[in-house]
Amino acid sequence: MTTLPFALSVRRERLPEGTPGSEAAADLPGGTPGSDTATDFPAVIRGEIHLPDGGGGDGATADPGSDAHSAVVLVHGFKGFRRWGFFPHLAQRLVEDGHTVVAFDFSLNGVGEGGLDFDELEAFARNTFSRELAELRQVVEALRGGSLPGPVPQRIGLLGHSRGGGIAVLGARELGVDALATWASVATFQRWDEATRRRWKEAGRIHVANARTNQEMPLDVTLLDDVEENGERLDIEGAAAALDVPWLIVHGDGDEAVPVAEAERLSRAAPEAHLEVIAGAGHTFGATHPFSGESEHLGQVLSLTREHFRTAL
């Protein structure tokens, strides 16, 4: 496996004018459009592209019939990042099947250039769902357009975990990809009770605990505004109902973060999707960070996912 880094400056046009979070255009290198003001958080999508042996790194188009003609884009979730836990292991397994794998961090996921620590919490506070969807579009378009290292794939799949599963479902509807897999995916971004919403709007910010790092992670009210003002575009179940691609839904019935009922909701919305419930599995299928090896549950999920993409791509 050959691994090559990439970085994409977030496009200024990524969000419609007026969308909550669109003021984060000021995050782009060079400052607010039309100003000379430097920015606190240069908006860069950092990632790696993992190529099968012999896949090359010169940007050449893959030969028809070669193993490099398919790619899988990995979409991390809330408080996640491209190097968290099982993601590098997952990438390696998919590359073994001949797929190019793209792993990236959303630009405001809170993880800095080191790629492992939440050391940009003010950036984390300003992230929105619409921004993540737009950045997924930019990554897929860069992959299709040959702007990323390696061969240009003929077919593309998306794989999202948790909140990233919801973004992947929305992306699959908008981007015309060829296959989708979701692990422990949310079925809705509406995840706060009325009291929390009211407190959030009054204060402008709330904090959520990261049990792994013992950090209190801020969320600005622009995230809530995004859900409330862009509900139709961010409707995961509505997007699921409109999908017409092979879709594997995997969820553990012991998921402590996202109830398995959300997988069942997605399955009802998209009856052609294939739902696999893993008995006893939690939200990360037994994986931890740092990664400590493949658990039985993760092995089951990997086997299902590899077979799905072998068939669908």
Name the descriptors.
313 residues; Rossmann fold; eight-stranded mixed β-sheet; 9 helices
Question: In words, what does this structure look like?
Answer:
The structure is a single chain. The chain has helices at 87-96, 121-125, 129-144, 163-175, 194-203, 222-229, 236-242, 260-269, 296-312, and strands at 2-9, 44-51, 70-75, 100-105, 155-161, 179-183, 205-210, 215-220, 247-252, 274-278. It is of the alpha/beta class and 313 residues long. It has a single domain, classed as Rossmann fold, CATH 3.40.50. α3 (129-144) packs across α4 (163-175) and α7 crosses α8 (260-269). The protein is globular and about 55 Å long. The relative contact order is 0.14. The model is unreliable at 13-40 and 57-67 (pLDDT under 50).
In short:
The protein has 313 residues and is an alpha/beta fold. It is built from 9 helices and 10 strands.
Identify low-pLDDT runs: 13-40, 57-67
Total DSSP helices:
9
CATH topology descriptor: Rossmann fold
Distance between the termini: 19 Å
Mean pLDDT: 89
* Strands, count: 10
Order of helices and strands: EEEHEHHEHEHEEHHEHEH
Helix content: 25-40%
Largest sheet, order of strands side by side? Answer: 1-2-4-3-5-6-9-10
The coarse silhouette is: globular
Name of the CATH superfamily:
Alpha/Beta hydrolase fold, catalytic domain
Class of secondary structure makeup:
alpha/beta
